[in-house]
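Figure S4 source data
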Amino acid sequence: MFRYEKSDGVAVLTLDNPPVNVLTPELHEQLYGILKDFYSDPEVRCGIWTGAGERAYCAGDDVKSVRQERTTAEIVDRHLTPRRSGDTAEYPGWETEILSLRRTKPMIAAVNGPCMGQGMIYLLLLTDLRIAVPGARFGMPEIAYGMPGAGGVTRLGRQIPQSAALWMALTGEAIDAEEARRCFLINEIVDPGKLMARAGEIAGRIASLPPRAVRVEMETFYRALDLDRDNAMALAGHMYHLVRATFDKTPPLAAKEK
C-alpha cells in the first residue's frame, strides 16, 4: 500500500509493500488517486516520496503479479484505452495514466535503498529533487529479460549525460549513489538516519515560498526544455509577467505624499 500523509503544506507518500516495495497493478491505481489529490489540493505545496523500511525505495514491478490471459488484440486495446474506475487491475494498467497526469507541484525523492525498473521510471518522471542514502542503487534491469525500459520512458538521457544514460540503458547495470550524484541523477547523499529530516527541510523550504511562483517556475522549466531558444524566452517572459501582474500594487512614494 501507499501511505499518504499531509502536514504543514507537505505531503509524504510512502510505498509500503515489504520486503522490497514492489509495485502491483493495484498499487499503480492507488498511486494515481493519490497523485490526483496531491496535485489538486491547494493546501499542499510540495511532496516527498520514499519507501518503507530499509531494504528498498522501490524494486520495480512485481514479476509475480498474475498476468491475465489476453489475446494480442485485447492487450492492444487496453494500451490504447484510458483506464476508468472499476477496471480490472492488471497490465497494461494505471501506470500509463500516472505518466499522463499534469504535474503541478514539486516532488522530492527520499531514496532509502535500491530504485529499479518501474521505480526508476517514476523517479525520472514524477520527482524533481532527489536525495539518497549511501546504499541506494539505481538501475533499469529489464533489458536482460527482453523488456527494454525505453530509456526510462525517454527521460534518462534528458537528465544525465548521454554516455551515462546509454550505459545504464544498454547494459542493464545499476549505479551506486556516488555515481548517481556524479552524473547528477541525484542532488545529495544523506546518512540514513537523516534522510527524512533532510527531505522535510527541503520540502519545507519550497512550501514556504509563494505557491504561484513555484508553480510557474516549475511549468516554465519543463515546457521550455522542448522549445527552441526564441520560444523558450517568449514563454519565460509571458509566465513572468503573468505572475508579476498578480502582485499587490503599492502606490509610489510620491503618490502617497500628494
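Figure S5 source data
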Amino acid sequence: DMLTDLGVEYVVIGHSERRQYFAETNETVNKRTKAALAGGLKPIICVGESLDQREQGVTEELVRMQVKIALNGVTADELKNVVIAYEPIWAIGTGKTATADQAEEVCAAIRKVVGELYGEDAAKGLTVQYGGSMNPKNAEELLGKPDVDGGLIGGASLKADQFAVIVDAATKG
C-alpha cells in the first residue's frame, strides 16, 4: 500500500541478489508476485541460471520451472500486468553478457512456457526483458531479437550517456 501511495507502478521480484543474499525461493517469488498483483503493482519477475547451471545444460529446464512456480495461481487477466526478465546470474555485474542468440533462446523459452500455461495470445502479449549487463555496445543487437522486448538495466542506468544509447537502441525497434 505504501508503494502505491508513493506512485510506484512496478516492483522487481526474484532478482538474483535477493535470491542469493536473502534466501528468496521460487515459492516466495510466487507469494510476492501474487501480493504485488493484489496490491495493484506490476511485478517484474526475474528468472535465470548460474554459470554452473548453464554449463550443465539445464538453463531451459530451470527457467521453465522458475516461470511456472512464479506464475502459479496467477490468472490470465493478472498476467497482463506481469513482466518477466531473463537475468543470467553469471552475467550480472561481471561485465559478461549472454550473446544475443543466447538471450533470444531463453526469452523464447519463457514465452513458450507462458503459451503452454495461458495460450499463445497471452504469450505474445507478455513483455520479456533481458537483464544481464545490457550496455551501449550490445543493446541494439539484444533488442533486435524477436523475443527480447526490452531490458532490465542495472549499472548502465546510472550513467546518463550510456543509458541514452540504450534508450535510443530500444526506440529503433
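The domain at 2-172 is CATH 3.20.20.70 (TIM Barrel). The beta strands are 10-13, 42-47, 83-86, 127-130, 150-151.
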